[in-house]
Design goal:
- GO terms for molecular function: cyclic-guanylate-specific phosphodiesterase activity.
- This is Diguanylate cyclase.
- By secondary structure, the chain is α/β, with parallel strands linked by helices.
- It folds into 3 domains: 231 residues, TIM Barrel, CATH 3.20.20.450; 126 residues, CBS-domain (Roll), CATH 3.10.580.10; 177 residues, Alpha-Beta Plaits, CATH 3.30.70.
- It has 21 helices and 20 strands.
- It has an 8-stranded mixed beta barrel with strand order 1-2-3-4-5-6-7-8, surrounded by 4 helices. The chain has a 5-stranded mixed β-sheet with strand order 15-16-14-19-20, with helices on both faces. The protein has a 3-stranded mixed β-sheet with strand order 11-12-13.
- Strand 6, helix 9 and strand 7 form a beta-alpha-beta unit.
- 34% of the residues are buried.
């Protein structure tokens, strides 16, 4: 090892443990919070061995890859545990292990377990991430080594699916708990249909196999939005947080609140809060059972100790216990705390949507209510049924105010904004934007990818209007509107050119080459459809011509029809001063 300068440098790395660990967060997309940290090993700074490719590559060449793996593992665990807050909150730790190390005959069984015992880190927090530096030549030995880790309780992840030697075969053989998708497939997924289709297929496959997907290399909001939409479980990348020497307490990225209606008490659990009779944990099973028998409509009883909720007793569970042959004789005098369940507890200011997401993620179960607190004290309970009713009402109302697909304001805000412009008695433009051949695209590619197009158009319109005076709204389907006092030609041309560029990525290479897709007409006949274009209708509005929005909208619709008649990717203008019957 000491025969070359790099060999001597590597020897010094071992002697002085001269490596550092960087931690990069892995983020849970549903909860939008840190789920785990991946350990990234770096060699001595300002040297060729700082790069992990060089460091582990040289160790492999010199026959000491196993020793480097163990050293990196040891340092990573030690550094992670020293950040006590993450040790305590059960964030998971992804530790890279190379295939060669697993297959090395000198690999000592239980080495990682020994390290964890010394550090007092719970092994349920550790995920063994398999990194491929070379092909797996003996799958049987590899799987035996891997299953040894699993038998001890470790979870397993496959790194960089799509870039290694074995790919789907490895996934099939290993049946991992996590699969990391190489950043090649994530980059520009918002504008490349092939990558979108690949990811869509992988997500479906993963859900069927019970595997969690981790998307690597997320660098833009648009990529993140598409991954959320596809139902990807976990993500990591520079957009969210760059690797750092200490596990991050927070993310660099904050999800924009695209809702147009401010969250009020009517959108928190306060709206479903009702006061329910509670019992002390020392009350007997007999006393609680008598209360339930005398109140047949009561299905649960909160357990509260000095104002703090500690449990929930469910009618069906308690009655099942008492209904057994000796149930009453055995249990009647016991304290109810022995039969209470761990409750779901939410602060009274928790948004309804967060509670709804949690309940959806838990799936079907017998629980039907949750406890509500204020400043940590019991104030009441909310039932799942009441939550469902309120959420349904909110969705109906939200549809009027904001389009859930694009996040843009819907019909009510659009009409209000146009009326504000009319009341100001100043000239402005209403620019209607409609997508040509959108239905054919939906039919051919899928509604999921059609939704991707809608989201991309919203991004184009918002980008064009960034820094300008105006308003962007989503009427519904593939119809959008811009209300602005800016120069209409500049805005319309920017929209057309930006969409023309973005739309290329919606199609496969084959469809791009032939300039469109083969689909079916409304009559069910085979028909060729050109690639999607935009029809942009512009209505120039001047003072004292329109009094209300209804007539204005009718004329603006004619402008949109004029653009469609012109053939797409063009804008058509109607000047309200020339429109005498307005």
């Amino acid at each position: 090892m000491a025969d070359t300068s790099l060999g001597r440098e590597l020897l010094a790395v071992f002697q002085h443990e001269n490596i550092t660990t960087l931690f990069q967060p892995i983020v849970n997309l549903k909860k939008r919070s840190i789920y785990a940290f991946e350990c990234l090993t770096r060699g001595p700074e300002n040297t060729p061995l700082y790069s992990p490719i060089n460091l582990f590559g040289l160790a492999d060449d010199l026959g000491c890859l196993l020793q480097m793996d163990v050293l990196a593992r040891n340092v990573a665990i030690r550094n992670f545990v020293s950040a006590s807050s993450f040790h305590q909150n059960q964030a998971k730790l992804f530790i890279n292990v190379t295939v060669s190390s697993l297959l090395d005959k000198n690999h000592r069984s239980g080495k990682t377990l020994q390290l964890l015992a010394q550090s007092q880190l719970d092994l349920s927090q550790v995920v063994i991430e398999i990194t491929e530096l070379q092909p797996i030549e003996d799958c049987d030995i590899f799987l035996k080594a891997l299953n040894h880790y699993r038998s001890m309780g470790f979870k397993v992840a496959i790194d960089d699916l799509g870039s290694g030697y074995n790919g789907l075969k490895l996934w099939s053989d290993v049946k991992p708990d996590y699969v990391k998708i190489d950043k090649h497939f994530i980059s520009n997924i918002d504008s490349q249909a092939d990558k979108y289709r690949f990811m869509e297929t992988i997500v479906i496959l993963a859900k069927g196999l019970g595997t969690k997907i981790i998307a690597e290399g997320v660098e833009t909001e648009q990529e993140l939005y598409i991954l959320e939409k596809l139902g990807v479980d976990l993500v990591q990348g520079f957009l969210l947080k760059r690797p750092s020497a200490l596990p991050a307490l927070s993310l660099s990225f904050k999800w924009p609140d695209r809702r147009q209606v401010t969250v009020t008490d009517n959108e928190t659990v306060k709206v479903v809060n009702k006061h329910y009779k509670w019992v002390n944990p020392n009350e007997t099973v007999f006393e609680v059972a008598e209360y339930l028998l005398n109140n047949p409509d009561v299905v649960f009883v909160p357990v509260v100790d000095k104002g703090i909720p500690t449990g929930m007793v469910w009618r069906h569970a308690l009655m099942n216990v008492l209904a057994t042959q000796y149930g009453r004789n055995l249990h009647s005098r016991k304290s109810i705390k022995k039969f209470m369940d761990e409750p779901l507890v939410y602060n009274i200011k928790t948004p309804l949507v967060d509670v709804s997401n949690d309940i959806t993620e838990m799936g079907a179960q017998e629980k039907s209510a949750f406890i509500i607190t204020e400043n940590g004290k019991y104030v009441g309970c909310g039932s799942f049924m009441d939550l469902l009713k309120v959420m349904t009402d909110l969705k109906v109302r939200s549809a009027k105010y904001a389009n859930p697909l694009s996040g843009l304001p819907g019909n009510v805000p659009i009409q209000n904004k146009i009326q504000q412009y009319l009341d100001s008695n100043m000239p402005f433009s209403v620019i209607y934007v409609d997508v040509d051949h959108f239905k054919a695209y939906n039919d051919c590619y899928s509604f999921e990818q059609g939704d991707q197009v809608i989201a991309a158009i919203a991004n184009v319109l918002e980008s064009v209007m960034a820094g300008k005076e105006g308003f962007v709204g989503h009427i519904g389907g593939d119809d959008f509107v811009i209300v602005t006092e800016e120069d209409h030609e500049t805005v319309a041309n920017s929209v057309l050119s930006d969409f023309r560029f973005a739309s290329q990525g919606f199609y496969t290479e084959e469809d791009r080459e032939r300039g469109g897709i083969q689909s079916f007409s409304r009559d069910g006949e085979p028909q060729f459809f050109p690639m999607m274009t935009l029809s942009v209708g512009v209505l120039l509005v001047y003072p004292d011509i329109f009094v209300h929005t209804q007539k204005l909208s009718s004329v603006a619709t004619r402008a949109k029809k004029g653009a469609k008649s012109a053939g797409g990717n063009q804008f058509f203008v109607i000047d309200s001063r020339d429109y005498t019957d307005a």
